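Researcher: I need the complex structure. Ligand is heme C. Inputs:
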Amino acid sequence: MPKRIATLLLCLLPAFAWADDQFELGKKKAAVCMTCHGEAGVSSIGIYPNLQGQKLEYMVATLKAYKRRQRQGGLALVMYEQADKLTEQDMQDVSYFFSQVSGKAASRASE
Ligand code: HEC
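Model: Output:
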C-alpha cells in the first residue's frame, strides 16, 4: 500500500483507537524502563522515581533534557544511556504509557 494512503488511513482512525494503540506500543517500548521504574511506573526502589500518572509533556521534556545532557546532577547519569536510545517518537510513546497507566490501566500493565 502506498505510504501516503497508509498515513491517510491512520489519520482516519478514531482517536480512541489510536490512543489505545499508543498505550500498547508505549508499554512494549517501556519494558526496559520498567526494570527501574516499575511495571506500572511505581518504583520499588527508593532512589528511582515513580512515573505513573506523570505529565506526558513533562516526561518528554525531561527525556530530551537527559539526551542533551541539560539535566544534570543527582542520578541523571543513569538516565543518559536510557534517553540516548530513544527517538522523539519513542519518548512520546513511553511517556504516553506512563502518563496513562494508573487505576484501571495499572492492572492492564500487569496482565
Ligand atoms: C537503570 C535504571 C533506570 C532505567 C532502566 C530507566 N530509568 Fe528513568 N530514571 C532513573 C533514575 C535513577 C532517575 C532519576 C535521575 C535524576 O536524578 O535525574 C530517573 C528519572 C527519570 C525521569 C524523570 C523523572 C522526574 O520526576 O523528573 C523520567 C521521565 C524517566 N526516568 C523515564 C525513563 C524512561 C522512559 C525509561 C526507559 C526508556 C527509563 N527512565 C529507564 C533510573 C532508570
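Model: Summary of the prediction. Helices lie at 3-12, 15-29, 31-37, 56-67, 76-84, 88-100, 104-109.
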